[in-house]
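Quick entry between incubations.
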Amino acid sequence: MTKKLWAYLAAIVIAASAVVPVQAEADLKLPRERVTLVAPPFVHAHEQVAKSGPKIIEFKMMVVEKPIVIDEVGTTIPGFSYNGSIPGPLMVVHEGDYVEVNLVNPATNTMTHTIDFHAATGALGGAALMMVNPGEQAMLRWKATRAGVFLYHCAPGGSMTPLHVISGMSGAVMVLPREGLRDKSGKLLHYDRIYYIGENDFYVPRGDDGKFQSFTDASDYFPKTLELVRKLIPTHVVFEGKVGALTGKNALLAKVGETVLIVHSQANRDSRPHLIGGHGDYVWETGKFHNPPEKDLETWFIRGGSAGAALYTFRQPGIYVYLNHMLVEAVELGALAHFKVEGQWNDDLMKQVSPPGPIPPDGIPQAKAN
Amino acid sequence: MLTLKLKRIMKIGVFAASFGVASTSIVMSSSAQLDSFETVDIAPRAFAYRMAGDFSQAGRPVDAPLVSVARTSVLHIMKQQVTAAEYDRCVVEAKCMPRPSSESSGPNLPVVQTSWEDATAYASWLSRKTGERWRLPTDEEWVFAAGSRFHDDALLVAASRDPSVRWLARYEKESEQEALDQRPRPTGAFGTNEYGLLDLSGNIWEWTNTCFIRQSLDAVGKPAAASIANCGVRVVEGEHRTFVTDFIRDARGGGCAVGKPPSNLGFRLVREE
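Done. Structure below.
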């Protein structure tokens, strides 16, 4: 981006702030709804099929600058986030709604932040109008004209854009069709649970001892991480900001027979979500709901800089691994979550005919009787 | 240094005397290059032993049998895990493989990132250096020495045709364990057990000589057929019991998508009479 363009954009910001009052004007005669966002992997309550006409949906997001631990050995980086969570919260609206976002950058922060909504039209996704310094806030309203899951991320300009994103500043918006999710033939697709998984890549310098260094100050971290960023090889690829954030006590829950919608975003790199032992029954790989979902996928592709959605009905109890099926990134770098699913085992779908044991002399295992 | 050691032994002596089951001895090596290896002598006793391996009843996985074992001889086992400095002496003499360079270590840190093969090579080297017979403990010996530090990982769920029952139970159990800081800590950081052994079931898991077995059991839990041993996989003991391929030095990657791997792989040895 040229300096000239930035000066132009800055002029717009200054001009805009001169004419727009702090409170949004009541120029739209639509009902309003204020939504309190919740931290991923969870998603705020919402209607799947809109029960009424378009609304103005109000969201408030705080920019949080706070050191975060990103792995099990305690590696710390100076995290930047929307509302204190990595990824930022999923915002759910319907097509035709207006999204009204109040972005607050507390005075205790150190840097300028903004937000680029991939679902919004104009002004760099709103980023040009939302550049807030510490101690400032701004409000933006944009119309949700396209249905799908879309990324949002910080974009303060220059190297600060990737640096803020690799420090945690990305999230997603889900714009549902007013008539809800549909399959190719128009049949309604309902979900019992929804989880939002944000995948992040981190680039942490190592010390002379070969171990990750820890940083709490962005002015120290940014020049060092930028060297690694330019080589494009992440040291961590994680879900929900940390290795193991969605395993063990934090494993995602479901029951046999329940349908789960999994929204997955990656602001930078490509990812290949796969559910070990399960499938994607209906997958919007590019995340846009007016394209018919693909059926019965084994692995789907999330293009860097986008979000996708997969619908799956669990049919078997047990532990499922949801991972980036670039297995090195999953197992070695952290992009792995667990689903813990309870319910009745279905012998028809799978049965252990002969447990591991010695190879019989004739080479033919004996099927065990029930 | 010697004074320090003696002080430590005095303390242990008092401790052991109060239990009346253990005493300590120092083995001074003939080589000035070698440290003394302090062993704890644990008197024979009967104890409950949870067997190690995969056990099944009528083709369904079950907890390993709990058997009563009556030991008849004294066990001489290293009071502490072999340290990085001790291990490095074997490396210098080219009898042990160098440790991966990514693991830094101080003189007082236990050696980690060792495979069963490394531990076995070290035991052979130490035996040659000292003229004594050193080896890894069997799993039964380790459990005997660990006493209250042994973690019984029996799931205590009824046998089921549903394979997810044990799977979920194990996952729950592993999820309950607190995530330990994986960085090795100086010898003694995880305290002493009732026999005076240091750092059992801390954040370093210990190799044993016991091979992984599969065993089918009859209706009353007795072996129904000969067990099948796989000695390419050995029992590893610590905060939980696990089975690790003998050439693996770092099991943290796991190799499995689900299941808690040991944080670090180290070892201590037993001395045969």
